[in-house]
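Below is one such record:
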Amino acid sequence: MMFPTGLSRLRLFPNWVINDARENSGFTWQTEDEDPYWLGDASTKKLSSVLLADWEGFVAEAIGKTLVIDVVDPVFFMPSAYRAAAALPGGWNGTASVDNVENAWAPRADGLPAGLMLRRGDRVGLVQSGYKTCHIVTKPINAATATNQVIEISPPLLPNLFGVGAQMVFLDPVVRMHIVPGSWSAPRVPNQDTIASFQLKEAAAQS
């Protein structure tokens, strides 16, 4: 499912679901209630009455049927070293194969093009058996000497979903999202086009 015409701004960010606690003695600890997941906020351009009606129909269906929207962050659609040229090195298609998942925070990818540069903060996706997740690169990589590289990421991969043979995607990595019920806002002003806004939450893992 894709957004209708008129999306203006989209921001995706991870929710770490970590709680801090502190005793009177000064001792502190953290608890993690669940796996991290992605959140997002978005807004439209000024919408005519026709476009607004189209958006409201889209949102009503997406929320009512709990539909999944495959979302690509418009800033992090490819590694930052290549965004200006809008092309990956050597005509590479942006996909590698995961050949080691012993460390969920640092899976190893094979089939990277020689000379590939990844910067901290770039995004990568994982895809296997229809499941898709998105991750942040936490350590720079230069594949000048080897096309088989450990890619340090956060959040970590989910070992119950991804194993050896998963695809690691560097072009248009997807986050699967729902529109958060109650988040849609489209205030009307007489004789003016409408700017709408809404929030997103990562969908539970599904194929």
Remarks:
- The chain is about 10% helix and 35% strand.
- The chain has a mean pLDDT of 90.
- The radius of gyration is 20 Å.
